[in-house]
Amino acid sequence: MRGRPIDVRMGAVLLTAAVLVTGCNGTDGAAGPPTTPVAKPATPAPPPTPAPTPAQRKLKPGAKGDDVKALQRRLKELNYDPGKVDGKYGTSTQLAVWAFQAVNDMKQKGTLDKPFWEALASPEQPEPMAKKREKDRVDVDLKRQYLVLYKDGRPRLITHISSGSGEYYCAKDRGAKVPRCRYATTGTGDFRTGRRAFGWETSPLGRLYNPIYFNGGIAFHGALDVPRYPASHGCVRLPMHVAEYFPDLLGTNVPVHVRRPK
After folding, report:
1. Count of Cβ atoms closer than 10 Å to residue 194 Cβ
2. What is the pLDDT of residues 132-146, one digit of tens each?
3. What DSSP string describes 182-210?
4. Stated pTM of the model
5. Residues 6 or more apart in contact with residue 209 via CB below 8 angstroms
């Protein structure tokens, strides 16, 4: 009977020690194992960090890989044209990215980060340029430098452009004997497509690829240089890979609405 109180006190001590050890947060190794072994499930190893996906990794021009292919496929789904789906972040993809950023009211830049991927997952639709919205038409946004070609009331192509630079220049018109000076502007208004040419056409101001005229001597045409900013003498420059098939999409006498939104 005398040994029982001792056993009780010893049991209480051991129980208290076990409680203190199992109550530690991340310090089991420092405190040592409990006196009485306690079976407990093995702690599972933390899951490996997932590999970066197109919605997580930053991309820059020159990048290559499957995530670039995913970017290109997504842009095509949204009617932008990044060129070949080849996993290479080159000029054609950059031009499509600029157009997407313009439509989604984002700063146009080459590095693609989290805000870009979020916008790509839930994109904005381009705003119509005119109250009259013909099912087949072209809307040109001079402020944000993109155009939208509509077929059957839906965007068929959204592409980056470069319009008139606004600079003052002098040049001879066809048949003129003296040069005429003017500002390099792309006029706003409502027009219709007219004359066109196939291949390279030489004008007094340079060469135009597959031009489609819609306002006097102002045309949509392919160009080797389509910078992020307005740089033409007044025409609407298109990326060369877009200009290759643009005439197949755009017929004659099709409405063209050119605006500079506020």
Report:
1. 15
2. 999 999 999 999 999
3. EE-----EEEE---B--SEEEETTEEEEE
4. 0.78
5. 199, 200, 201, 221, 222, 223, 240, 243
